[in-house]
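User: I'm writing a tutorial on reading structure tokens. Could you give me a worked example: one chain, its sequence, then its tokens, then a sentence or two explaining what the tokens reveal?
Assistant: Sure. Here is the example chain.
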Amino acid sequence: MAEQITSQRRIVLVTGPSGAGRSTAIHVLEDLGFEAIDNLPMGLLSRLLDGPEPARPMALGIDARNREFSTIGFIELAEKLGRMEQVDLTVLYLDCSNEVLLRRFSETRRRHPVASGASPETGILQEKELLQPIREIADTLIDTSVLNIHQLREEVERWFAPQSGRHLAVSIESFSYKRGLPRGLDMVFDCRFLANPYWRPELRSEDGRNPDVAAYVQSDANYDPFFDRVVDLLKVLLPGFRAEGKAHLSVAFGCTGGQHRSVSVAEAVAKALAEGGQQVAIRHREMERRSLNVRPD
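And here are its predicted structure tokens:
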């Protein structure tokens, strides 16, 4: 307890009426590197702060749906955190006009979580009245009435990542067409037209991470034009996706067995992007599943 404070924890409390974009804002903060916890019971926050100091800033979503929620409790919590020298606190309030909130609930056909079976109009008015005192103490207020999801992302980034800008993580994956396409892909490239190392007995048991396998795949006359165009395409698309507010791009390369060609190409593309400064993660699906029985590529 007597330990001298050398740095501050940055904590953003995110709240606002249902449908105003609170969850979207939390997702954006998470993409910006915050440790995000949504719909956090207020009674758990003290235990969370008493635990080990987090390595990242924290974004905590607190809203009126929580059974422990109270306006007075939220304000007292914000005041307590604001007095703590080791905490850099921001209360972010997402607001929206009643008319737009009503339209959003009508489009999704969801019940208002505060309405308890009443009309959405009643729920909106009750929640707005409940949250008004919190709105008045908020450090940052974002009105989402005229913002689409991309504009809201830009607004949150403007407030909370003015120096670092937008982040875009790229995942590169190899797979076997025999097992079907992986889920959640943005782009897929078929490598089955390339020279197949499976037909070389000395390479059959290896995979595309082996230098000899990679060299064999790259010896195909079609490899260089294919590889160059894929990398050039991604280098053109990545700034556009980043500007659009996309946080993650998943690119996959497939071949017959997911062992040789797709693995080799995925490794080479990931390396080219990483050398250009892009954040890249790589996964070889079939290598993770691989047993002692080698499946033909």
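What the tokens reveal: Confidence is low (pLDDT under 50) at residues 1-6, 291-297. The CA atoms of residues 93 and 141 lie 5 Å apart.
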